[in-house]
Amino acid sequence: MRAPTVAVISMGGTIACxxxxxxxxxxxxxxxxxTSPVNxxxxxxxxxxxxxxxxISFDEIVRLAREVREQTDRGADAVVITQxxxxxxxxxxxxxxxxxxxxxVVFTAAMRAPxxxxxxxxxxxxxxxxxxxxxxxxxxxxxxVVLMNDQIHSAKWVQKTHTxxxxxxxxxxxxxxxxxxxxxATLLRCDPAPALPALLDSDRGDAVRVALLTAVLxxxxxxxxxxxxxxxxxxxxxxxxxxxxSGAVAEALGELxxxxxxxxxxxxxxxxxxxxTYGSPGAELDLIGRGCIPSGQLTAxxxxxxxxxxxxxxxxxxxxxxxxxxxxAAGDG
Length: 333
Ligand code: GLU
What we know:
By secondary structure, this protein is an alpha/beta fold. The protein has helices at 58-73, 88-98, 121-133, 135-140, 222-229, 247-257, 284-289, 300-312, 317-329, and strands at residues 5-10, 17-19, 26-28, 42-47, 78-82, 105-108, 144-148, 151-154, 158-160, 169-171, 178-181, 184-187, 210-214, 234-239, 262-266, 293-294.
């Protein structure tokens, strides 16, 4: 019997870092797939880039999704993607919305570089490879998952919640999708079927920019007016608490919402935003009345990724907003 083949696409980040030649700190220099052999598996190493994850663009994620499909067309049984942890919650969600395959793609990364004591790089990569080959994962979800620290997270719910701990990744507000136990994936729950069509084939590569602003104490409206001047096609506001802003900010958002989609999320990053409780100026009833739309259970980061990909796919505004609200409402939280 032939050994299963897993394509490991390596995109830099800590898992690919080594001390720089000039001693100026860790930099991505190695191919993550080459860092540790995995028994009984043919690892097809796909060097993609050696960058920090802050450099990844939506165009690149779309190219990456096409590469995932290409790798399986060329006989890979599963695909693992490695990258930096900093934008992992966004890229994995983007890939899960593009959904290049019927089977899930597994993302992994490391909080400690391969050269650091107690590095999680090899353990995460090996666990990601076994999870990617596990048929149970295919039944539990589609799109993409994130595997870190022996925990499997749905791309939709995972967040990086700490600057340096190895357990920085959490499925906030719900249980993990699964765990790795004695080298095998054990699935703890299933994700509901996606509320959205796969967005890869409809992606038109349009240059779409969606801004993200956080609501704060004593906020002025200058940056909100700047969003229109700068030509953004959408705005996500990370609101206070249940998704609130001040009355003056709500007025500025309402003006903007006449021209572009404006989504309100919550800076608490846990729980669904409110839609029908508070009636003060700037609270959710006011925002909805002014044409802003709720992100539901999506964090602002996820809502921005979703709105960007929907607009890149040429969805008219009302369709994009309806799909965003359906995706924000869907789930087990
Ligand atoms: N800041 C780097 C990145 O996101 C390293 C972070 C990491 O991989 O943990 O690529």
